[in-house]
Amino acid sequence: MNYSFALIISVSLLATLIIHCAANASLVQDTCKKISQKSPDVNYDFCVAAFESDPTSKTASLQQLAFISLKLGTSNATALIPRIKSLLTESKFDAYAKQCLRDCLELYSDAIDSLKDAVEDFKEGDLAKANADISAAMDGADTCESQFTEKQGEVSPLTKENGDFTQLAAISLAFTAKFP
User: Fold this and answer.
1) I need a labelling partner for 172 at 20 to 30 A (CA). Which of 4, 39, 100, 153 fits?
2) Do the domain assignments include residue 12?
3) Where is the Pectinesterase inhibitor domain (predicted)?
4) For the whole prediction, is pTM greater than 0.90?
5) Number of domains in the chain
C-alpha cells in the first residue's frame, strides 16, 4: 500500500513538473511571438533559440525573461571583444577596416556598460532609462556595421555578429514596454 501511495505522489509530481515546463516554454514562445510581431529587428526563431540557450528561461517569469535577455546581450557583446581583437591582428584588413574594427571594439565595450546599466535600471523600475541604455547599446552595433559601408567596396567582417547583437538588444528593448 505504501508503494502505491509513493507511486501516486511521484506521478503527480512529475505531471506538475511537466505542466510547469510546458507553461514556461509557452511563455518564451508567446513572448517571442509578441516581440517579433512588434519589432522588425527580431526573428521569432532567433528569439526562442536565444532564450532556450539559457536553461533558467524554462522556469522564468516574464520579468526574469527581461533580465535573461539583458544577460544574453551582455554575454554576446563580451564574446565579441576577443573576436574583434583577433580580427585586428589579421593582415587582410587595410587601415580603414582596422580603424572601423577599433571603433567597433570601443562601441561594444560601451554596449556592455550600457547593458549593465540597463540591468540596474530594470531593478530600480526606471524603464525609460533602461530603454535609453539598451537603445545606446543597439546603436553601437548599427554604427559598427554601417561605418564599413562608408568606404566603397568595404565589407564588414562582423555583419552576422552585429545582426545577432541587434536582435538581442531589440528583445531587451521590448521588455521596457512590458512592465507598468
Assistant:
1) 100
2) yes
3) 23-175
4) no
5) 1
Q: Which domain holds residue 127?
A: 2-175
Within 8 A by CB and 6+ apart from 47, the residues are 31, 32, 35, 36, 167, 171
pLDDT (tens digit per residue) in 17-75: 333 444 456 899 999 999 999 999 999 999 999 999 999 999 999 999 999 999 999 99
Burial class, 75, CB count within 10 angstroms (exposed 0-12 / middle 13-18 / buried 19+): middle
Q: Could you write out the three-class secondary structure of 77-133?
A: HHHHHHHHHHHHCCCCCCHHHHHHHHHHHHHHHHHHHHHHHHHHHHHHCCHHHHHHH
Residue 36 located in a structural domain: yes
Question: Is-contact 109 151, C-beta < 8 A?
Answer: no
Domain annotation covers residue 180: no
- What is the widest separation between alpha-carbon atoms in the chain? 80
CATH number, position 19: 1.20.140.40
